[in-house]
Design brief:
The protein is of the alpha/beta class. The protein is built from 13 helices and nine strands. Zinc ion (ZN) binds next to loops. One of its GO terms (molecular function) is hydrolase activity, acting on carbon-nitrogen (but not peptide) bonds.
Length: 375
């Protein structure tokens, strides 16, 4: 059993789980049955990891899209067509993603990608099939990289500013909902998979806490968790970050733990720093970035918390061509032994759900004790 598949075998609960797994593995012989069994086993392993509060959960997540201002730094961000063609991935971005997945899997983890549906218009999508085959989950990032909070047609996506006829006669809410469905449809038809979660294009300081309509729309589309929240520190030094700047980032990690909105939808924030913020906006050097990532992962391990390293391969292949950052993360998790694991973001969501249900049970018990006192 590799590192990702769980290290909690000493606990009674895990012994029970393993015997269930052994039973499942030995009791079904058909090919279809075996595939169902492997899904059940993977499901149980994720539940084990989510339940084990003594373990920090670390994720590596990639948004599969092109990024303004790349690949040639120094050129004005409008020198490339990416704002209108987010899914027109270049070969370097695809290769970087495939190699990253290989590195993370070798370290016993998975890499969670979020796909802009436009990518599936490319002639060849074998590289994505290869990733899926290796067990890496892929989530929905909308078809055209739309801003789901938009209330005005002009704010939905640059593409629709230039070609408004594509959304003529539809409300922004209809365009957004259809754009999410379109990505699902493309993933099902071209890749044969359902999306593993949803990440909003762009990020919002409070997630979508103040947009109950969007939470309900996503729940009605079948999503139990989303990733929409990011709030980096303000007033951080440009170009040459200091220890105080790093501390300011670390102080935000507590606010980036997964939680449940009152509607029941789970929010899985992605953790600062973001690659575009560090490299494009602040012009950091890779060494500074690496220092902060190391401190961040160590903070998560120390606090048995979650940390999602969410970046863009279209940026990282330019800024970190030798994969130093993900290799660093894999090494830190390996060194942590039983105290950490590299998991998908669905496991973050499971942990949030479990904690939420535990708190609700506690509240209900407390309420019944208080009621008894009043009798
Ligand atoms: Zn994006």
């Amino acid at each position: 059993m590799n590192q990702y598949l769980g290290q909690s075998s000493k606990s009674k609960q895990s012994q029970t789980t393993i015997s269930r797994r052994q039973f499942l593995s030995s009791s079904v012989a058909t090919v279809a049955g075996l595939s169902m069994v492997s899904r059940l086993v993977a499901d149980e392993e994720k539940t084990d990891l989510a339940t084990n509060a003594s373990k920090a959960l670390i994720a590596i997540s990639y948004d599969l899209e092109m990024s303004a201002g790349y690949p040639i730094k120094g050129k004005p961000r409008n020198a490339y067509p990416w704002d209108h063609q987010k899914g027109n991935l270049n070969d370097e971005t695809k290769q970087y993603t495939v190699e990253s997945c290989r590195i993370v899997k070798e370290a016993g983890g998975v890499l969670h990608s979020f796909l802009v549906g436009q990518v599936l218009e490319h002639k060849n999508v074998d590289w994505l099939k290869q990733i899926i085959q290796a067990g890496h989950p892929i989530g929905n990032h909308t078809y055209d990289h739309v801003r789901i909070t938009a209330k005005n047609p002009n704010d939905i996506q640059y593409r629709f500013q230039r070609a408004p006829w594509l959304i003529k006669g539809k409300t922004p809410a209809e365009v957004i909902s259809e754009n999410i469905r379109l990505c699902e449809l493309a993933m099902q038809q071209r890749l044969g998979i359902k999306p593993a979660g949803f990440r909003t294009p762009y990020a919002f300081a409070n997630g979508i806490a103040d947009r109950v309509d969007l939470q309900e729309m996503l729940l009605s589309l079948g999503y139990t968790w989303i990733s929409s929240q990011y709030r980096g520190p303000s007033n951080v030094n440009h170009k040459n970050p200091t220890k105080a700047d790093f501390d300011a980032f670390i102080a935000t990690h507590k606010q980036h733990q997964p939680y449940v909105y009152p509607t029941g939808l789970i929010e899985v924030p992605f953790s600062p720093p973001m690659d575009v913020g560090a490299f494009r906006a602040r012009s950091w050097k890779l060494d500074d970035f690496l220092q902060l990532i190391e401190k961040s992962v160590l903070w998560a391990i120390e606090n048995r918390a979650t940390y999602d390293f969410g970046v863009h391969p279209s940026v990282m292949y330019v800024e970190d061509p030798e994969f130093k950052t993900i290799k660093l993360i894999c090494n830190l998790v390996k060194t942590a032994g039983d105290r950490a694991a590299i998991v998908d973001l669905g496991t973050f969501a499971r942990r949030a759900r479990q904690q939420y249900e535990k708190q609700n049970q506690k509240r209900a018990q407390q309420k019944s004790v208080n009621n008894e006192k009043c009798l």
